[in-house]
User: Fold these one by one.
Assistant:
Number 1:
Amino acid sequence: MPNGIRIFYLMAIVTALCLMTNGRAAYAQLPEPTVYEPPLGYRDDIDYGPYPTTVYGVMNPDLPDNDTCFLDADEVPIKWPQLYHAGEDWFRLDGASGAGSEVTAIENGVVVWISVADFYPGYVVIIEHNSLAVGTFYSMYGHLADVELEAGSSIYSGERIGFVLDQPGQFGDNSHIHWEVRDFADAQYLNNYPDACKQQAQNAGKGYTPTLPNDYGYRSPTGFFDFMTGHHYIFMPIAPTPPHWDVLMAPEEADQTEQP
């Protein structure tokens, strides 16, 4: 093959590769961190984490016994205490209000969605991450105030997203973040599931599922955190640390009889 033709083909291949990677250029400037950061407590040296009824994949008997938009096999509305938590609710563990606490990104990524969801009080932020270890995944942060980002902007691990929304509760302070690790950005895709709620809150989702959240593409946040860092924090998950990412797709169920 003449040298001129070889050069032409090489240039064509390089051009095609550049076009294929366009849109991911931000990741070239955002190397994968060696340490993943928790969404709360990065700078203030305060302990945060979930309560036993607000961890991932459990039913919360403290929720109001009201009907939801989820339906069972007989098309009867499922009540809130019968749903599984698709993320984790993190509070200040010293009993003080978490309102105003700084919320930070768990990993480098790109902000793909910011909005006030019709289901979540406050703002919701969704960040896309591209990890060599597990591929593309998304972290979601709900119940935020004073978000300081714009959609499409790059963000680094530990960089500020916003602050926890002030949510005074009827029986005590309810200021917390609901955060998720999941395989999708837009929760409206869940409408394709026959048992899913048909009123998904735009990209955010409902934060709960009628069966184990793994079935819908959610992952254990602290299970993921433990897997990626090898650290065991105060918010260590109920299930043992999974040995690889595939296990996070189907973690062990906690014994529902022991959950308050």
Number 2:
Amino acid sequence: MSDNQTDAPLFDIIMVCSPAMDTLTRAQRSERMRLVKSRGTTPELLVKRLLKSMRLKFNTHDASVPGSPDFVFRRQGKVIFVHGCFWHRHASCHNGRRLPKSRLDFWKIKLDKNRRRDLRILRQLNRLGWSYLVIWECQLNPPERIEKRIRVFLKKRGTN
């Protein structure tokens, strides 16, 4: 090791050698992540528009229901979640299996926690007698197919 590298902090050496460096500055990354919404996403708004066109009555993001589901049908004891494939780790979708190229250790832990939380919430809803439907972002087209799934789900009696 040359003299100039021994004085450098280990962090700088790791960052220089890391093949998966972030291409954005810390401020740029922070700004980009701030734009990621948890409510009012495009997939959620598409489902909301569909539910309204079906003339269904529902509440949104009811905090009294575990997981604050995107859509709550209290009379039927049913809820609908609209999940983004990447954030919620949709196993049947390319976006659900891909991982970011930078800070892999951070993202793997975060995304796995999201998935475990989702499963815990679904078990909790089941124990409380709620039925649930998860609509994945990649399943939104064609809208007719989602409308049919929703109609069947809301007519069905009992829990999952």
Number 3:
Amino acid sequence: MEARKELGLSLQVARAAVQVDAAEVAERLGISQALYSHYEHGTRKIPATRLIEILDRLEIDSADLAACKSLVFRLHRGGNDGW
């Protein structure tokens, strides 16, 4: 699976775990629900600062964050500024 899509699926799982819908997460981030949906479906790159903000808003715990960081490292090793 493409890493960006894998990250998006991870975000979907994390969001479901805290029982919020995509529209609520988008509102918390101050972005459109459509843009957030693109992030979750892996069709748009997530800027590094936005990813950190998403993880914070979803209250990802340290164990889950470590798994996300591993994925982020794989995605970022090409020198991109987004995922």
Number 4:
Amino acid sequence: MDVKELRDLRGSELSEQIATLRKDLLGLRFANATGELEDTAGLGRTRRDLARALTVARERQRRGGRSPRAAQHAAARDAAAHEGAAHEGAPQQAPAQDAAAQDS
């Protein structure tokens, strides 16, 4: 895939492309290792395509846009913070005391 085409993709489409290229590269590596791969140049092409896609993702991240993975982490963090705020008014339980401490 051309770099211009990669830059035109939305963030979710770019992350899907990266995932697809990683799976393709894994399959090509296995095929090469088992001797089933006839077009060994495809291995290098896929590796370069993956590098291009990762470069575009990194450029976006450095420009201030979130990477797809960072966006997922932020959403999870926001959800956890929201959930924690809902439980602030709940009564706190005292920590369980050791049985030996209760006997003395």
